[in-house]
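Entry:
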Amino acid sequence: MPCRILLVEDSALVVHALTLLLELAGHQVGAAGSVAEAVARARVEPPDILLLDLTLPDGDGLQVLEALRAMDAAPPVTVALTGHEDRATIARCELAGCRAVLLKPVPTRELLARVAEWEGEVRAAR
């Protein structure tokens, strides 16, 4: 069974590029462009890995994780994607429960290697 990834990102170009990259690596990828859309999509098809942009049109991306946790539906792995590498942002993401904070643009090799690592953890836990 392929790893289910939900990519929460409001840039259509980023969504297209990352979806193509991750699908070519054998993952099942869904996308959402807002907090509301991400929560709705995760309810229907719970992801194994949540790749979460912090700046979304309807709020802070960490609200997605908050909402899923409130429904007892938090994914096994959540990763923040951000253009901000300040300590306050990283600390906020870690406090919210993000496994990692990746600075955009994330190098493709790094992203694929990290996703493969997390996928192994998810499979082992199943």
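The longest strand covers residues 77-82.
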